[in-house]
Amino acid sequence: MKSVYLDAQTSIEIVSNDNSVSEYIIDYNSFKQYRKEIEELLKSSLDEKQIEPSKRGKIYKNITCINRTSFEDILRSLWKNISLNLDDTSISLFVNSRNSLVHRGKFSCQIIKEKDCTFSNEPIKEYLFLVNILDKTILKILGYNGSYYNYYKRLNDII
Question: Full-prediction pTM beyond 0.85?
C-alpha cells in the first residue's frame, strides 16, 4: 500500500498540497551531491569518538537512509488524503507494531515488557489491531461508509 501510494503521489502533478510526500525528503540525485559532505562531517565525529573503521563503513553505507521519508509520515499523509481520522495513539501503535514485525520479525508485544504492552503480550490482539487499521484504510479508499465487522473489538467472541 505504501508503494502504491507513493507511486500515485509522484504520478500526478500536485499543486501546493501539504499532504504530498515522496520516498525521499530531498530529491535523490540532489542528495547524492551532499553525500560526501555529510560523510566528512560524520567521519570527523566518529573518529573523535574512536569508532572502529569497519563500523564507520557500515554507517557510511546507510547515509542515504537519512533522506527517506519515514513510514509514519507516509501513512499520516495517506490517511489525511483519504480523510481517515485516526488518533495519535493508534497511529503510534500501528507504526511501532509494523516496525517491530519488519525489523525484528516479532510483534511488538513479544519484545517490550508486558506491563508496557498495550496488547497484554498477546500477538493475536496486536494482529487484529493491525488488520482493523488496514480494513479501515482499504474501506475508506474504496469509498465505503457503512458498518463492518471489527475483529479487534470482537476479540473475545473469536477466542
Answer: no
3-state secondary structure the chain: CHHHHHHHHHHCCCCCCCCCCCCECCCHHHHHHHHHHHHHHHHHHHHHCCCCHHHHHHHHHCHHHHHECCHHHHHHHHHHHCCCCCCHHHHHHHHHHHHHHHHHCCCHHHCCCHHHCCCCCCHHHHHHHHHHHHHHHHHHHCCCCCCCCCCCCCHHHHC
pLDDT tens track, the chain, 159 positions: 888 998 888 776 555 456 678 899 998 899 989 888 998 889 889 999 999 989 988 998 889 899 999 999 999 999 999 999 999 999 999 999 999 999 999 998 888 766 667 777 789 989 999 999 999 999 999 999 888 888 888 776 655
